[in-house]
Hints:
Blueprint: E1 3-9, H1 13-24, E2 31-38, E3 43-50, H2 53-59, E4 67-73, E5 88-90, E6 93-101, H3 104-111, H4 122-137, H5 140-150, E7 153-161, E8 167-173, E9 178-182, E10 185-189, E11 201-204, E12 209-214, E13 217-222, E14 232-234, H6 250-256, H7 258-267, E15 270-271, E16 274-275, H8 285-288, E17 292-297, H9 299-316, E18 320-324, H10 325-328, E19 339-345, H11 351-362, E20 366-371, H12 377-381, E21 384-387, H13 400-419, H14 425-436, H15 438-447, H16 449-456, E22 464-469, H17 473-488, E23 491-496, E24 513-518, H18 524-536, E25 540-546, E26 557-559, H19 568-585
Parallel strand pairs: 17-18, 17-19, 19-20, 20-21, 22-23, 22-24, 24-25, 25-26
Antiparallel strand pairs: 1-4, 1-10, 2-3, 2-4, 5-6, 6-7, 7-8, 8-12, 9-10, 9-11, 11-14, 12-13, 15-16
Amino acid sequence: MCGIIGYTGFSEARGILLKGLKSLEYRGYDSAGIAIYSKSYDEVLVTKCKGRVAALEDKATSIEGTTGIGHTRWATHGGVSDQNSHPHKFGSVTLVHNGIIENYEAIKNQLGVEKMLKSQTDSEVVAALISTYYNQSGEPERAIIKAIKELKGTFALAIMFDDIPNTIYAVRNVSPIICCKNENGVYIASDITAIGEYSKDYFVIPELAIVKICNNSIVIKDLAGESIEPEYMTLDWDINDSGKKEFPFYMEKEIHEQPRVIEKTIESRIKNGLPDFEADGVDDSILTECESITVIACGTAMHSGLIGKHIIEKYCKIPVNVQMASEYMYNDPIINDKTLVICVSQSGETIDTLEALKYARKHGARSLSIVNVKGSTIARESENVIYTNAGPEIAVASTKAYTTQVAVFYLICARMSLLKGIMSENETKEFICELMKIPNAVQCILNRKEEIHHLSKSLLTVEHTFMIGRGLDYPTLLEASLKLKEISYIHSEAFASGELKHGTIALITKKTPVIALLTQDKLKSKQISNIREVQSRGANVIAFIKESLIGDSEYAFSLPNLTDDFMAIPSITAMQLLAYYVSADKGLDVDKPRNLAKVVTVE
Ligand code: M6R
């Protein structure tokens, strides 16, 4: 959570920092601030305020200089206020911080600086610590190294000193910072969306290395003072794709990108009609030698694992257990060298997923991650990685990352089943043919989005909804329900329809909105009965039914016909649109729902 940015070079820093912060705002939008070295004042000047970057832009009109750092905050330690906004300045040290310092109280007491602090943040204490050591040694790198050795927790820090103009130091532990340069200077940021326009070649700052950037030079050293060569990567999506284009919100744009990115994710892994992970460097042995799979993830990413479970168990005959990353290690999981852990994460930075991955590996599990952001921490900590080709996902509510994660699960399922000799080559080719129909089915739904928009109107004034479905439709509804909750603030619960009579149906009264999903042939009559049961208690049912299953049942929206096992992606596309229209028509900030941030780096 929180986004940081830094620039040093030959242009005015203000515009670059503010523009970068706007791209990083999805990481946190409680407050924003910038600090720029001013030649006229011969010191680093800070401007910051609570609220969005737009508010900061109005405030930071006259701050000039060519070296600066910036921050957009998701509050953890200390409330949302001007004082708690970053950058923090202590003595001659100014810094921005992303992460959590667990021992900041102890450090504060040890330094005896309580009365001198202006905020309640852990971050200001780090500035005080570095400042103290800098005053002692007069050597910035030595002071930073001494300070970070004392820190417990995660951090990405960009640091400036009043008396070292045109220079920024950066250091990180777990929380990401990437770096790139061009003829105009050097740029650092929490992610590439903020600085990708300046260069396609970038590197992730190595953990616990001190990076010094100055004009357009970059020097990286480890804690022992040895030089480190950066490992450059190349941005493989067009930065111009990262704007909203003609869409009012990123979420709508990202929903519309799904046919293309799903196709891209699948096609790059098909060779002669069969799934192939050779280019990803994935070792087939992890798929053949495992005796059980544990999928570990959070939120939407975890829901993709529930779809993965459904299909892998069916086609690969291997038990798949899906775990919320935040619970995993506290439940004494059964792990051995025959356990394959699959971590799923859009950002590749979710701390719960990362910690669970480390725990599983430490206890002997093999690992594979499905990640969207290249070079992210989870990708690097995992033995094997399959990247989703979703491109940058900016809206807090995940859409295209989810559907590409599900697409990767289909590919894993097909490859594993083929390798295990469960599906023959021909059967696997047929499976892949069905998979390749998904982008078109998604496009068909997008072409009819106004029908869904119309249906969404009935949800505008409700406080609660229930979603009911069976088989593969149930995990799809868990995800649909999360989408509706997080962006429309309507309380929504998904239930396996068969469970209704075991308690939940007591909540159904006259006009209770119920969204019903039916895409599974073998469950048709049972689901229709469940729909009748809630209707007979007065519920207003909005039914999404696969075209071939409609028969004479009443329906609100017909879903395109695909084989049952491949319906998860088209169904969720319809639900994403439903949630989107409710939120947009309620006048809410669809892309930045309250209290949330896109990247969750706090346990
Ligand atoms: O970056 P990750 O995929 O690891 O994030 C996990 C969840 O925080 C995320 O999927 C979240 O639930 C979605 N943004 C909700 O739409």
